[in-house]
Write a sequence for this structure.
């Protein structure tokens, strides 16, 4: 079992990160504001204009600490990672699967995404009463799951996934409580850049989780860039994006809805860029990340292993199960299905 290590988020523009012996030091305006042992860091996420010393980059690469850079509103820019761990036999098995039979895993990723999105809608109905609009989409998603036949090819799967995502997001606004709809009206998914507050929150959380998944995959020796559902593209974390599909409805979407519906985030907590992009202001982003880390400390019972684990370990558990499948230790990969 992989220990749940710390994720360090740097959100203040102009921060300078460097190493001091075996520790990571953060300076702002020339003053040391934070210091911690490098062995207790798993990933460093830098938002905005952050400077990192070459010495720190080198030692992070040696110790397997990932450094990811994002714009102020959460758009991914680049990622630094040391040599990939794991053995060549595991990666060869992964590549053979991706080349010869991507449909088997791709179907599981798509099915889990649809099932977990459907669970979100059903959970809202249980808590807030039945809705004909939601009921229609719930029925449609159930029908789409039945359309994922054994012989279906990846292109058709992508078509079903895209249709289900559009249906799901067409009623996402229904899951925002009435008292918050005026401040956080959601008219549909948009990105690159996000043009409203709900999309800004969703995109930010998806970016965070994608790179946590990538680190989990690298931790067990799987190549996060070679996917089965998402096509290969230079610099694209295709397999991490595959795993994101099954996790994001339960993790990211519910997290964002909780922040909005519990009035933990406000309309005034955002700024609009000249480009029209909407992003959280600095203080709100820090609060978001604090809540994100606290959420990862909550526990759930894993539906496949039956173990109680911290939510932050979920990407690592799924990566381990995927590695077991590639090694033929499991007949099938068990995707995460929420309850």
């Amino acid at each position: 079992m992989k220990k749940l290590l710390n994720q360090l988020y740097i959100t203040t523009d102009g921060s300078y990160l460097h190493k001091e012996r075996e520790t990571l030091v953060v300076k702002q305006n020339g003053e040391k504001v934070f210091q911690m042992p490098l062995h207790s860091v798993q990933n460093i996420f830098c938002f905005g204009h952050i400077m990192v010393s070459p010495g720190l980059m080198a030692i992070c690469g040696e110790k397997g600490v990932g450094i990811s850079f994002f714009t102020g509103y959460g758009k991914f820019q680049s990622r630094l990672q040391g040599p990939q761990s794991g053995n060549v036999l595991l990666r060869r098995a992964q590549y053979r699967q991706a080349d010869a039979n991507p449909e088997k895993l791709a179907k599981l990723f798509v099915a889990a995404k649809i099932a977990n999105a459907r669970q979100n809608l059903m959970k809202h109905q249980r808590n807030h009463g039945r809705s004909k609009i939601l009921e229609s989409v719930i029925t449609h998603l159930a029908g789409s799951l039945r359309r994922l036949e054994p012989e279906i090819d990846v292109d058709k799967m992508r078509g079903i996934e895209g249709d289900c995502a559009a249906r799901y997001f067409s009623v996402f606004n229904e899951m925002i409580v009435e008292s918050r709809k005026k401040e956080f009206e959601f008219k549909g998914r948009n990105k690159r850049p996000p043009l409203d507050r709900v999309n800004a929150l969703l995109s930010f959380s998806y970016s965070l989780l994608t790179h946590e998944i990538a680190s989990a995959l690298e931790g067990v020796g799987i190549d996060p860039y070679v996917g089965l559902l998402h096509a290969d593209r230079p610099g694209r974390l295709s397999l991490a994006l595959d795993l994101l599909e099954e996790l994001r409805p339960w993790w990211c979407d519910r997290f964002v809805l909780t922040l909005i519906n519990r009035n933990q985030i406000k309309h005034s907590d955002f700024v609009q860029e000249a480009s029209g992009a909407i992003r959280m202001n600095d203080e709100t982003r820090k609060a978001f990340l604090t809540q994100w880390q606290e959420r990862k400390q909550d526990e759930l019972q894993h539906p496949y292993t039956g173990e109680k684990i911290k939510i932050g370990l979920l990407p690592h558990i799924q990566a381990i199960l995927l590695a077991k499948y590639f090694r033929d230790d499991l007949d099938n990969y068990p995707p995460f299905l929420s309850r």
